[in-house]
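User: structure tokens for this one?
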Amino acid sequence: MKYFLKNIAQDSMLRTIILIVLGVAMWVPSFFEQEYLIPKVVTLLLSISNALLITQCFYRSRETNLPSPFVGSTYWLAMSAIPALHTCWQAQLVITGVLLAILTLLRTDFHHEATEEAFLSTLICCFFAPLPVAILTGILLIWGYLIFKGLMTWRVWFASLIAIAVRVILMFGLHYLGWLEWLWLENIPHLSAWQWAIFGGIFLLTALLLMLPLRKPSTASGTIYLTLTVLLIATGILWHGQLIPL
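Assistant:
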């Protein structure tokens, strides 16, 4: 048992299958309810996509030596466990943008100017963030990262500004022509502060579940991972049973 807990982050086909099946099982009761079916489908697809993207992020950032099923399956289960998050496609969309921007920025190095990476990551932020505050925060974080890495130059900053201008011009053109009005931020359904808070808490918990066993493999880390995972699943089951009010 000690060996299993200490090496819980190592690749295991059985554990991966169990986590994936448990995640799928948490979605089944939600789909029996016909209400909000399309948002649930969109959220499900984005959750799967983000599980694959976060696996690549951990690999590209050298947190794992190879793309790790442990990372993807843990994210999938954590995001599937709580029924209240099954319609929060806006939050998953934000995570998609963040992960794509991270993967883009991870391509930067000191051998060439990061103009392409700054442009693409800023453009991703502008189109994937469903709230103005999220767009502004994302852009500032991208600039902060480039400054911290010593990669920010006038050309890099200008490339980022061009990406912002592309978003503004495109949206103005579509609005002027009367096309794709649903793309405007005010037309996108907003999540409540309560939903954002739950998602933020689960996401931070997921980060802990991933980083602790990977960076500090030990019996204690494995025990914390297993305990929190069981608590997540139990909370989801109770929520489905309406013992925790929606």
